[in-house]
Sequence to fold (252 residues):
Amino acid sequence: MDLQLAGKRAVITGASRGIGKAIARQLSREGVDLVLAARHGDALLAAAEEIACETGRRVRPIIADTGLDASVDALIEAAVSELGGLDILINNAATPGGAAPAGRLAEVSGQALLDDVNVKVGGYLRTARAAAPHLTAAGWGRIVNIGGLAARKTGHYVASIRNVGVSALTKNLADELGPLGVTVNAIHPGATRTEKTTPEAAEKAGRGVTIGRIVEAQEIALLTAFLASPLSAALNGETLQAGGGAPGVIDY
Fold:
């Protein structure tokens, strides 16, 4: 399927490893020129060089902290200058699984909650706010927010709160920006195999889902590429569950 992405320009946050890096590789394969953003320079530079070498597309790394207004504003300004414009924003920057244990009320740290929400929800808001004028000026754009299935279950206070926040932010952005040609959707991955996943963790994750195996980062990247494409125009303000299927649960 031709996703009609060739020549588009995208910013991807949290792109140095894991799901973010997989999304960057897939979009680059589809012909998208990229700015990759993350806080850690060595891994970010390595990811950008690897993907550019593989695909031949323009892939530029920019160190940024989405928890800070000034850093995000500078990121988007530099990306627009580097790419000559902006069509797509992929928000993925966050601490995987949450910054601290928070399975029980007594374990919840107020600072950990604020830090996590500031980066994941606040950070997604910051990047969308900075990118929106460029997307709406062109009359077309896509924002895809990567959340997590902790939004749909208990067991980790901070992870649940921040990922529910991603869905709420997504719908608010979609209602405001949709009439201006910019759609905004979210994906909630469950357990996903990345470079850090052990065989034991993958086997355990596979036992808990109806497809019988862990979801691959590349599979999340393929969903993201579709949502970032012109072909996804019928979807706006939606959150897609992408965890391999929860047994016994009916979502409607």
